[in-house]
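I trust your eye. Have a critical look at both lines of this record:
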Amino acid sequence: MMSKVLDRILEEDVKEEINHGVRVSNLAYHVAKTLGLYENICRELAVAGMLHDIGKLKVAGYLYGRMEDTLDVEEMRYVRMHSRLGYEILMREDYSDFIIESVLYHHENFDGSGYPENLQAEDIPIGARILRVCDVYAALTSDRPYRKAFDEKTAVELMIDEVKNFDMRVFLAFQKTIHEVELAHSWGMPDIEVRIEEETT
């Protein structure tokens, strides 16, 4: 019985991560388009958006099944490794430097207060600067076990309070993008189902 409960919790957490990746991917693509980046870069950014949290698979024990948004210092230090772990996973595959660097640095803040390298301003790759904004918005506008999703207006207001974290040019493009009527549902939650099954031999 306990095994089935744990599988159900894992299924919900994995589903949430996949849905989050899809939303970040779609939004990042459109923000890149708004910024006037080349189509091939926009498409690469969509891939990076889908993969940006792949390193969380390595820290799943600290993340999944939690009902509160609190981590102790040691747990936080480990969880913060997920962007570097994602980088290491993607380095073993045939992804471009643009995608890999976007994933590695997507938690860097424009003012230098992010991780893993405390990069700031233009030292942060443009792909990572775009993912940073899209990742935060997608997280704020999604339900979590410990809170309901914020509406669009509240989410943007919360982001403005922390605007030092973002490249202002990217942030303005992001705001323009989310208010485009024809794109309004492009980053809505897809209805993805996940099923965990035991491996049979």
User: Anything to note?
Assistant: The longest helix spans residues 2-34. Confidence is low (pLDDT under 50) at residues 1-11. Residues 24 and 138 are 6 Å apart (CA to CA). The chain has one domain: 2-183.
